[in-house]
Amino acid sequence: MTESTNAYSAFIPEIWSQKLNNMLEKECVMLQCVNRNWEGEIKNQGDKVKIITPADVTISTLGSDNITYSELNPTSQELVIDQKKFFAFKINDVAAVQANTDIMEAHLKNARKAIEEVQDAYLLSQHANVAANNIVGTDASPVTLDKTTIYSKFVQLALCLKNSNAVSAGVRPWVVINPTIESYLLQSTEFIGAHNVADETLREGAIGRIAGMDVLVSTNLTSVSGKYYVLAGTNDAITFASQLAKIESLRDKDSFSDLVRGLYLYGAKTVQPNALAKMVVAASDSQAVPENADTDTDNDTDNG
C-alpha cells in the first residue's frame, strides 16, 4: 500500500505514484527475466521475505524389505529489501504540472529512466551468483565474439541451462546482451528476428531469439575490467520485490517553488543459481567495428 504525505494541498500523490508504478512494471529490461513470487507489502527498507524451498524426494526400488521413510528438510532463504533509492526535484508550480499532462508525463519518464538504470544494473549484477558449471569463458580467458562465433557460443550458453535441468516444457530461457554484442548477433544467419518469430511467446521488448533463448538488450551491461558478463537464465532463477513506498510534496521555504520527492525500495535474491548461466566476453573484441560493417553512407547494406 503506497503511503503519501499531502504537505501541499495542490499535490495529488496518487496520480504520480500510480503512473510511475505502471511505467516501472512494463519497461524495465530485467523485470522480464525475474519472478515476483514473494513480493508482498513492502513498507520499510530492510523488510525481509522468507522463502521456503522444498526438499528433494528420493525414489527407491521396492523389494521385500519394509519401506523406509526419508526425512524431508526444506531449506530457507531470505529476500531482503535492502536497496533504497530516491528522487527529489524542485518545480515552480506543482498544480500547473499536474494539469499539464505532457509535462507531468515527461517528469515521470525521467524518474522512471533513473530508477531503471540502477535497478537493471543491480539485477544484472546477480551474474556473481551463477553456478560454477554454468559459466562460458573465464575472467582470465574471456570469450572472443564475432559474427562467425556468436551462434556457437550462445548454443553453449543455452546448453549450460539445459544440463542444469533449468529448462523444461513451457519454460523459455532468456539472454540479455548489450548493443555492441547485438551488432554481431544481427549479422548471424542463425538469429531469428522478432518479426520472423511465428508464435507470440517472446518477452516484451525482446528483439528476437537465438539458440532457443529470447534476446533482450540492455545498455547497463557495461564493461568491467575489460570484460562483459552476458547473463542468461529462466525466470525461476531470480526473485525480485519492489515498492514505490512514498511520493510526497512540500513547499520550498527558500523560493516560490514546490519540492517533490519519491522513495523506491527493492531487493532481489538468486534462489536457483543453476537456472542462471553467464558468458565472460572480451570487451575489446566486442567493441571492435563489425567486420564488413558499412561505413559508406552512399552504399548502404542490410546486415539484419
Please describe what this structure looks like.
The protein has 304 residues and is α+β, with helices and mostly antiparallel strands. It folds into 2 domains: 3-58 and 73-125 and 239-270, Major capsid protein gp5 fold (2-Layer Sandwich); 132-237 and 273-286, hypothetical protein PF0899 fold. It is 23% helix and 27% strand. The chain has 6 helices and 13 strands. It has helices spanning 13-27, 94-99, 101-124, 150-163, 179-185, 283-286; strands at 3-6, 48-53, 75-80, 83-91, 135-136, 174-177, 192-193, 208-210, 213-217, 227-233, 238-251, 258-270, 276-282. A 7-stranded mixed beta sheet has the order 5-13-10-6-9-8-7. Strands 1-11-12-4 form a 4-stranded mixed beta sheet, covered by helices on one side. α1 (13-27) packs across α3 (101-124). The model is unreliable at 1-9 and 286-304 (pLDDT under 50).
